[in-house]
Amino acid sequence: MSDPSLIPDFDYDPPDTPLRFLHEDAALLVMDKPAGLLSVPGKLEGRQDSLLTRLQAARWDALLVHRLDCDTSGVILFARTKTAQGFLGQEFEHRRAQKTYVARVRGEVATDSGTIELPLGSDWEYRPRQKVDPNGRAARTDWQVLSRGEGESRVLLTPLTGRSHQLRVHMLALGHPILGDQIYAPETSRQYPRLMLHAATLSLHHPATKARVSFTAPDPF
User: N or C: which end of the chain has fewer CB within 10 A?
Assistant: First the structure.
């Protein structure tokens, strides 16, 4: 496990990129979030720029439903009415929303697939770091190798719970941290310009039609 003392100060320099809409209707907005942009404004000075604030400048009625880590890219959705926001929140709370992520990890993973079930909790001394904690909250991740080569693997990750930094800590615990992770694998962040983690797909019930819908954001790496 990497030395927590190596965790760098958070230098927020969000990318100046246009909004990328994946889907838009009267009930919801689905976006492709770039890496390096906060989902919502930060509490500290200089961290007000976020996907939510940019989106509300273009669509005043956008409402938060869920978040992605700042350094993670990919599919994220917002509601356009309070009713839709409540419905979508229930989709996540009751695990009816299904997500998959693509990641590039260090090392060539020996087996083809598996499940990680390790409880997670905050590492209070080194926040925002999380850690495997026997007294923490239950967390489960399914994983599948997509390809291997040149000292790394590309994996498909399916979180079955939604804990903070879950995929990052679980892959670290497996011995294959996600490349470019400044918190959990800082030794790789010089070679890789971003966290190699992307929210590839999101599937849930539409708040208006109640039909199952799926959204995909193209893999940037």
Answer: N
127-142 pLDDT, tens per residue?
889 999 999 999 999 9
Residue 185 makes CB contacts below 8 A (sequence gap 6+) with 2, 106, 172, 177, 178, 179
Is 148's pLDDT higher than 60?
A: yes
**How far apart (Å, rounded) are the C-alpha atoms in residues 140 and 146?**
19
* pLDDT one-digit tens code per residue, 92-117: 999 999 999 999 999 999 999 999 99
Angle at 194 between CA 191 and CA 198, to 5 degrees: 130
Q: What residues are labeled active site?
A: 69
Q: Give yes or no for a contact between 145 and 112, defined as CB atoms under 8 angstroms apart.
A: yes
Residue 55 CB partners (closer than 8 Å, separation 6+): 19, 29, 31, 62, 78
CA 141 to mean position of chain CA atoms: 13
CATH topology of domain 11-216: Pseudouridine synthase (3.30.2350)
Domains in the chain: boundaries: 11-216
pLDDT at 57: 98
Measured between alpha carbons, how far is 32 from 140 in angstroms, rounded to an integer? Answer: 25
